[in-house]
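Chapter summary example.
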Amino acid sequence: MRFSTTLLALATAVSANPLNTFRSEKQSLVRRDDLQIPGDNPLKYCDADRGDDIITIEKVDLSPNPPEAGTTLIIEASGTVKETILEGAYVNLQVKYGYIRLINTQADLCKEIKNVDLDCPIEKGKISITKSVDLPKEIPPGKYTVEADVYTVDDEHITCLTATVVFGKKSFGSILGDL
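The structure predicted for these 179 residues follows.
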């Protein structure tokens, strides 16, 4: 699985993870919009507790948002890397189509980030990514949910993102019209 595909999947989604409203006395309630990644995108953090994350995502913009089958998706992202990320970092990736799990794998982060013109080590400091991805017009209609939980070689948490996108029958219908 290419990182750009993972980034695309993440960038094309809205969180399907509901927050648990039953909290212990020591836990504070978190509004759902507090999980939203800043910018024009449907991305959300998996968890409200991001204090130990190695990456702070400042903004992600998608164009078009929401993504559409048969178009070029432009992804612009910026953030801050708090610690250098070394070879051996990995991402636990899960992709579902409705309730059907399509992918459940662990991928080498450093191998996959080459698809967005980055190399390991990823040095501490500000980072920006701009990527264009051609979305196939043959995307079957339905709901796609992605979760990417990212770790360093030493199992330190980098970040976790989730996203869901619904491609409508309109996308699939246009495919049939082209046949």
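To summarize the output: The beta strands are 44-45, 55-63, 72-81, 90-97, 100-108, 125-134, 142-151, 157-167.
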